[in-house]
């Protein structure tokens, strides 16, 4: 893979650019660099924001500057290895694929030439990498979805998609953490409150985690929703591995 490029991004940020494509290995290198920067506790850095193939680094201009940060970050680009991760966390999220909650489920099935049950099976089989969070607080862009069930966005976005909706757009899938306009094809919903500003951790996951969807019935969905249960009691972490970074052992 080619060497990442560092460029200014306004007067209080810089951006590290990796190869210009959506790729799991590239995204894991972005996340690893973010982890390295966080552990180094570099003076002046206030936040790192990983995306599909970029890492944005925000900094306090009273404590540092762009050229100083170049010298701080460039050594951390050496030997980025997509297999060297601090952890791998898989979070299981219950999803009801009933057509009352997934208005586009039948259309996705017809587009793919499959039954609704086959779409549900293909959608819930993988462990999806969270490439990035964006669009809304807690909106997780997940990949890679089985291309058999990929489908373009709606030609005219809906004005109001409810919180918890699970959708498809192209080869990606994602979850709406709050009510919002949107053009994704909605195939189900989760009773888990994905974003809550009053929680100690408002978002249940972060870029680099994995999401596993667990199909549930409509009765289960209604029971979970009506009980107003804490999100922590509805989802659970099915796997969390810790890995050392060879550059920091």
UniProtKB/TrEMBL annotation:
Q: List the molecular function annotations (GO) for this entry.
A: ATP binding; hydrolase activity
Report the InterPro entries cross-referenced here.
Answer: CT_C_D, Cyclophilin-like_dom_sf, PxpB
- UniProt-listed Pfam families: CT_C_D
Is ATP-binding found in the keyword set? yes
Enumerate the UniProt keywords alphabetically. Answer: ATP-binding, Hydrolase, Nucleotide-binding
Write the signal peptide boundaries. none
Keyword match Nucleotide-binding: yes
List, alphabetically, the SUPFAM superfamilies matched: Cyclophilin-like, PH0987 N-terminal domain-like
Domain Carboxyltransferase, residue spans: 4-205
Q: What is this protein called?
A: Allophanate hydrolase
Organism in which the protein naturally occurs: Alkalibacterium putridalgicola
Question: What taxonomic ancestry is recorded?
Answer: Bacteria, Bacillati, Bacillota, Bacilli, Lactobacillales
């Amino acid at each position: 893979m080619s060497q990442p490029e560092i460029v200014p991004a306004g007067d209080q940020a810089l951006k590290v650019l990796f190869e210009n494509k959506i790729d799991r290995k590239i995204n894991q290198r972005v996340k690893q660099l973010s982890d390295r920067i966080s552990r180094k506790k570099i003076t002046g850095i206030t936040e790192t924001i990983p995306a599909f193939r970029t890492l944005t680094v925000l900094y306090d201009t009273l404590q540092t500057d762009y050229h100083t940060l170049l010298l701080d970050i460039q050594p951390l680009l050496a030997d980025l290895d997509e297999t060297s991760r601090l952890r791998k966390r898989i979070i299981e999220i219950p999803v009801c694929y009933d057509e009352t909650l997934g208005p586009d489920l039948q259309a996705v099935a017809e587009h793919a030439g499959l039954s609704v049950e086959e779409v549900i099976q293909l959608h819930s089989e993988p462990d999806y990498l969270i490439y990035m969070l964006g669009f809304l607080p807690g909106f997780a862009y997940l990949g890679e979805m089985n291309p058999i069930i990929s489908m373009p966005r709606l030609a005219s976005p809906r004005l109001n998609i409810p919180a918890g909706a699970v959708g498809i757009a192209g080869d990606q899938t994602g979850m709406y953490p709050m009510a919002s306009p949107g053009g994704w094809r909605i195939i189900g919903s989760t009773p888990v409150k994905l974003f809550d500003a009053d929680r100690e951790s408002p978002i249940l996951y972060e870029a680099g985690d994995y999401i596993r969807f667990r199909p549930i019935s409509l009765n289960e969905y209604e029971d979970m929703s009506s009980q107003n249960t804490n999100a922590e009691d509805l989802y659970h972490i099915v796997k969390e591995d810790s890995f050392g970074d060879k550059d920091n052992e």
